[in-house]
Amino acid sequence: MSGIEGKVIAITGASSGIGEATARLLAKRGAHVVLGARRTDRLETLVSAIRAEGGSARYRKLDVTKRDDVESFMGFVRAEHGRIDVIINNAGVMPLSKLEALKVEEWDRMIDVNIRGVLHGIAAGLPIMQAQRSGQFINLSSIGGHQVVPTAAVYCATKYAVIAISEGLRQEVGGDIRVTVISPGVTTSELADSISDPVAREGMREYRRVAIPPEAIARSIAFAIEQPDDVDVNEIIVRPTAQS
Ligand code: NDP
């Protein structure tokens, strides 16, 4: 199946920011979107809004750090729709701080959500896509997956990992399954809310002045999906024009 209309698309971290904007856009373009995140009140409101505009949307509570949760989320998608065409591994957290602050629990959280969460999505979705002999993974990395800046060592490490995992996946299963990395620059969302370190929080406030809206990232995701089946867009970097 080419294009976006009629595709079954699972989105992790759909309760705000880029995931939410992507859900709205893809549903408007005729996809069946299935949304996962921990804040189900947000998902319920979003699903109602999409349905009110005639779109197809469902949601299920999801914590991507738990493998069982991700397995049952993907099982739910397949039970509802009979297949999964696209998995958007979007859930992410970014509690920035300098390494010397030793916020080890926050390092663990970034590793758990940003790396393990993506791997859990692949583990749950790959057998389904291999059985279908078609599908597409869209994994959210970042400009931070290409360059490291102070306070962002661990976050960047997780986003470098997303690029490495995606490239390995593409090399191994590229015959049937498409693999796309989306690497946004600074984008308006709730991502910086998780920063507990005052220095990093202040630095981010300055950085975010040039942020682009999450709809800009949603459009790049739609572009990767709507290409013909024999065209695999491997990475899109989208940053504000004013971001260095
Ligand atoms: P938001 O904070 O707005 O959205 C993050 C989403 O991830 C939320 O829906 C949140 O939902 C979800 N999430 C967090 N932890 C978990 C978990 N354990 N299980 C399931 N869902 C989880 O930020 P963005 O929209 O900006 O982030 C989306 C992606 O884009 C991330 O991977 C981020 O790293 C990446 N990115 C963002 C950039 C930006 O400037 N905004 C730049 C580069 C990359 P809930 O809390 O309800 O579970």
Topology:
Blueprint: E1 8-12, H1 17-28, E2 32-37, H2 40-52, E3 56-61, H3 67-81, E4 86-89, H4 104-132, E5 135-140, H5 153-173, E6 177-184, H6 198-207, H7 214-226, E7 235-238
Parallel strand pairs: 1-2, 1-4, 2-3, 4-5, 5-6, 6-7
Helix pairs in contact: 1-7, 3-4, 4-5
The structure holds NADPH dihydro-nicotinamide-adenine-dinucleotide phosphate (NDP).
Residues 12-19, 37-39, 62-65, 90-94, 113, 140, 142, 184, 186-187, 189-191, 214 line the site of NADPH dihydro-nicotinamide-adenine-dinucleotide phosphate.
Please describe what this structure looks like.
Helix content is 46%, strand content 16%. α1 crosses α7, α3 packs parallel to α4 and α4 packs parallel to α5. The chain has seven helices and seven strands. Strands 3-2-1-4-5-6-7 form a seven-stranded parallel beta sheet, sandwiched between helices. The protein is globular, with a radius of gyration of 17 Å. It has a domain at 8-93 and 112-142 and 162-183 and 212-238: Rossmann fold. By secondary structure, it is an alpha/beta fold. It binds NADPH dihydro-nicotinamide-adenine-dinucleotide phosphate. NADPH dihydro-nicotinamide-adenine-dinucleotide phosphate binds at residues 12-19, 37-39, 62-65, 90-94, 113, 140, 142, 184, 186-187, 189-191, 214.
